[in-house]
Write a structure and sequence with these properties.
The structure holds two protein chains of two kinds.
Chain A: E1 11-12, E2 18-19, H1 22-31, H2 42-47, H3 61-73, E3 84-93, E4 102-115, E5 118-129, E6 134-144
Chain B: E1 13-21, H1 23-33, H2 43-48, H3 58-65, H4 67-73, E2 79-86, E3 104-116, E4 121-130, E5 133-144
Antiparallel strand pairs in B: 1-3, 2-5, 3-4, 4-5
The chains are: A alpha+beta, B alpha+beta.
């Protein structure tokens, strides 16, 4: 497979929304060994000023990787997912994600750089509520290894 | 908020943490995150694609490492920016024969790297080590105080 050089600048519109449930926050928090009560106990979260259970700082990866999956699954992009390595990741939170949020993500391909026989692809997911309130911007670099690497 | 911005200094340690990882932890992370790449749970698949064994999700390590910051600041919602590069894989050994034994041990330390008086934010620089090597590079969490 060959990476489409015109991939840079491409966008994928928001797909299905993702409703952030309390159990999803609790399960994700347990999975990253997060002990803060604000992930588990609504009273503890509200005592910190949050509307409901607050998501761990990397929870948005669930939504971001669903958005990335659109790109990876797009046959015209030419990405062999078995050769994808996660190279770097950033989360910018405009406000904390809390239980009850209904989120959508618009994906942008910000940069495509040839690397050896492969490519480094930088994507950005703009995550907002279905009402248009910005919640997070995530940036991921995916290294697609060339055939000989 | 348990941390007072005015008391912080660049270079100050915020603490350290030890993260013990088992393959069961990776299965739990796969389920919670939706990332079911078999390199994180299937030994023969991982070896088949040239890895030394089953490796932790980079996002697992990133997500577990930031708990030091969440615990220090007291409110996980105070982490407004968090980034890292993934440089080395964390290989998680099969310890099913020894229940309770860790398959990998990751050490996390945090130091105040920068302070922004106008924004009242502190940047915590995390050092995340496994087997004597840095597995996360430029791991930086910005907290709003």
């Amino acid at each position: 497979m060959t990476i489409d050089p015109d991939l840079q600048g491409r966008s994928y519109p928001a797909g299905d929304s993702f409703t952030v449930g309390r159990e999803a926050i609790r399960d994700f928090a347990r999975a990253v060994k997060a002990a803060n009560r604000a992930h588990y106990d609504v009273d503890a979260a509200q005592a910190l000023g949050h509307r409901d259970l607050v998501a761990p700082p990397t929870f948005a990866i669930i939504v971001a990787q669903r958005a990335d999956a659109q790109l990876i699954a797009d046959p015209s992009a030419g990405i062999d997912f078995t050769r994808v390595v996660h190279a770097d990741q950033r989360f910018v939170h405009h406000r904390p994600i809390v239980a009850g949020d209904e989120l959508v993500a618009e994906l942008h391909v910000d940069q495509v750089r040839a690397m050896g026989g492969g490519a480094m692809i930088t994507t950005r997911a703009e995550i907002s509520t279905v009402d248009g309130e910005r919640t997070a911007t995530t940036m991921s670099s995916l290294l697609v290894r060339g055939e000989e690497q | 908020m348990t941390v007072e911005f005015g008391t912080l200094e660049v270079g100050q340690e915020i603490g350290s943490a030890t993260i013990e990882i088992t393959r069961q932890d990776l299965v739990k992370y796969a389920g919670a995150s939706g990332d079911f790449n078999p390199i994180h749970w299937n030994e023969s698949f991982a070896v088949g694609v040239g890895l030394p064994g089953v490796i932790a999700h980079g996002m697992f390590t990133m997500g577990a490492a930031v708990q030091l910051v969440s615990d220090w600041v007291g409110d996980p919602g105070a982490v407004v920016d968090f980034q890292t590069r993934f440089t080395k894989p964390v290989v998680v050994e099969d310890t099913t024969a020894e229940p309770g034994a860790a398959g990998a041990v990751v050490e996390v330390r945090g130091v105040i790297g920068a302070l922004d008086d106008a924004e009242k934010t502190a940047r915590v620089d995390l050092t995340v080590m496994y087997g004597g090597q840095k597995v996360l590079v430029k791991a930086q969490a910005v907290v709003k105080l």
